[in-house]
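Good morning,

Both structures are done.
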Amino acid sequence: MFKHDYTKTMMMKLFMSRPDGKGGTVTECDFDRADDILRQADALTLGAPKILYLVGWQYNGHDDRYPSFFEVNPALKSPGDATAPESMLRFINKAAEQYNTVVSVHINFSDAYENSPLFEEYRSAGALIRNSKGEPAAIEEYNGQPCYKISYKEEWESGLFQRRVDKLLELLPLREAGTIHADNFQCFVNRKPSVSIKTMQAYRKKMIDYLAEKGIDVTSEFSYREGPLTRVGYGALVRDLLWRLYPLNTLGQVPAVWWADKLKRREVFEIYPEKYAGGLLKGEYGKFLYGNIHGEDLWLKNNAGDGWQKEFLRQFAAINVPYFYLASLKKEKLSGRGKKMRMVYTNGTVSYLREQKIANNGVLMKAEENLLLPLAFKEDACLAYSKNGYKRLWQMPVFKYNRALIYDITPEGPKFLEEKPVVLGRIELDVKPGQALLLELKP
């Protein structure tokens, strides 16, 4: 049904730019730096399948001039290229060919700003959320601009949605990417003339289906639960307090979200991550079911700058590798309460909340951030990691191997260290603090 399998694909974002509040832009990452980041990330993740959504690629950056998204920020251009779109297309192609990565865009279908070229057209079409007086109402503020919300019903019926999507697809090869990320894609109640939440949800589905017909998955930010009381506080009451009363409306429409939050216990067992992937699963469940790491915060210049590699490797090893492994298994039951919670899988694997431990038929595979786990995306290979370092004898969960070629995982690629024997399914490893090792297993 979906173009991508989000249980087998890393889903990350890269923040490019933002408005400076003076009519200009602040560049966090141009396409040259993006290339360098992705090259190293691909090496550190051993070529794992990846999707990278670019944030703030349009106009002066993040949250600028919606509902328009038809211009690549000129400040992101590489010096050797004539235009920013040329740089963006070159980066997209190189990512696919060399870095095992689908590059797509982070956009917004919900917001509208007065500085957008489309704003007056949306106002005239009645395609903005209206207050009790029947007037368009700004609900939030971003980048110093009042932020209006789009009424999906009028936008769809006027053809505005279809036209702006078609224009975007002329600009960028998003059919080839097969995925986009829609930021904060929630429904709002239009008060006068009234449009119910159920009607708004039905039109959101039309929007998602329109992209699906073009071979494009829509991933999004949150778990969307909406109902009649969404009119209170523009959705805050339902979203933050009464979420247990409403089902996930986008289940089956949206395959993955950035924050898999507010899931009930039954939903965690039945739908995560096979039908509703992360992103990161918030709360206690995320500590033993894991998810896709975000990457985005580590790559901001004012955060880790160019010292991001060590933390990125830790997160990949301690979060994404367990996620891939567990997502490849079939769940049997979710047991226990509180700190005793654990997920049991049909092959004998158990993932525990306590100590973030994973074991297979009694064989320890992970305890906190010490681990030796199979790489679900790489045949006959394991990854060993320790945040603080260890020297220990590991029992393999499979007894068909006699030796292992061991590589140090670095931003420049795996560096061969040594060959070690596997004796009766056991191997002794000496892992330095913060080090990750690739084990290529041989019969």
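Second structure follows.
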Amino acid sequence: MEGLLTLQENTHTKTRIEIPLRAPIDPLSWLIGQPAGNRIYWSDRDSDMVIAGIGVADEGHPESIDPKKHAGGRYFGGMAFDAEGATSEAWRRFGSGHMRLPRLTVERHAGKGLVALNTAKDTIGLPKGVHAEVRHSSVPPQPVQEWHHFPDRKGWNNNIHIALDEFNENEMEKVVLARLSRLKLTADSDPFALLRNLSADQGPTFHFGFELGLGHAFFGCTPEKLFSRSGSTILTEALAGTRPRHAEPMRDRQLAEALLTSGKDSNEHQHVVQAIDNVLRPLCTTLHRDRSPSIRRLRSVQHLHTGFSGSLRNKESDISILRALHPTPAVCGQPTDLARKFIKQHEPFQRGWYAGPVGWMGADSACFAVAIRSALLWQQQLLITSGAGIVPRSQAEDEWDEIDAKSQPFFSLIASS
């Protein structure tokens, strides 16, 4: 770790020391070699920014922290899908929300590496137990002792039929229903080693991992941005409507064309587009969106995508933007209140941070993704959650298959014993 030392200070009691690296190292491989318990990871979808961090310089609920008190530092974390809902035992440590400023980070920006220390002025020093080595070994598939879906196939079909009846009888137009797959492993696993295997060939995605204790971490590769902000400029997107990928190029193109021309998927996508437009337009002096959806391709699935860009009218806080945009119809439904109520009544598990905002906040910028394509590692269990948008023409079997396709990257991390 060679280079010049840069000291950044502000009027508060926080200091950031940056040491540029002569040659960048892989932050995720470095992170896997560090002591477990308090590690974070973020890899941006739209740039070369990758950050791995250990230790705690500051932390708190997203609504209580102030990133401006720490010049140059970023707080990483997220919030629950339903901040006012009940918290299951598996999610208790994560709670309704948590953000952390790591004590030490290894970062890569535009091909250049650096090490940064975030600390109070009177306690400059490295966290205990820091390891210098970088580990590149791969992780074999993990043996599974038990495997259960919640709801099971029968319960899923029943929920879909109830939702279809609800569309006919009430004003609900769409609801996103999720399935939890609980895999009991036969051995302890490093969540960041699993994330490294998961990250391979996922296409344009945000990679994230938040560890809040030994063997207790939330991680994933999500394709969906909630919003990013730089100064007064805000970017967001609608991502809804899904088809699987196919290894044969012609068949893959046919699936994409079927998605673009599907009335059911177009209807689902437009719910999200209109909801984002309604929320952002009052907050922006200008707001632009793509004229028509395009295809966003991932490894196992492809989605309809519409991008938005705008200029914020006032200096909106990142928390107020989060409140305005979350949850979108892509992870909840339309109208939001009716869909949220339906989810509470019929999903047989607590979502926790699944489908909630995850990302980072800095002094004058922020980026949050939607925590889909994610899993919770807890007590030698891998809890994989995936959802599907249900609209009047939905078929239970098709939606179950869609969830299988979305969960496939996680299933590939493990193998039956």
